[in-house]
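User: I'm curious whether this sequence folds into something compact or stays loose and floppy. Could you predict its structure so I can see for myself?
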Amino acid sequence: MSDKEEKDMISNKKDVQKTTTASNAAVLNIAKMGMNNYKKTLSRLAKN
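Assistant: Here's the prediction. I'll summarize afterward.
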């Protein structure tokens, strides 16, 4: 394997890690939003 090929593979791996991190962050944000909505709904129900 040439040096260039190796560098390309390493940079591809980094890109994949970035996208994975980004999608994990998105999933976490959605989960947080869901939890907040859930808590709001619970407190509304508790008030009624």
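Summary: The mean pLDDT is 90. The chain has one helix and no strands.
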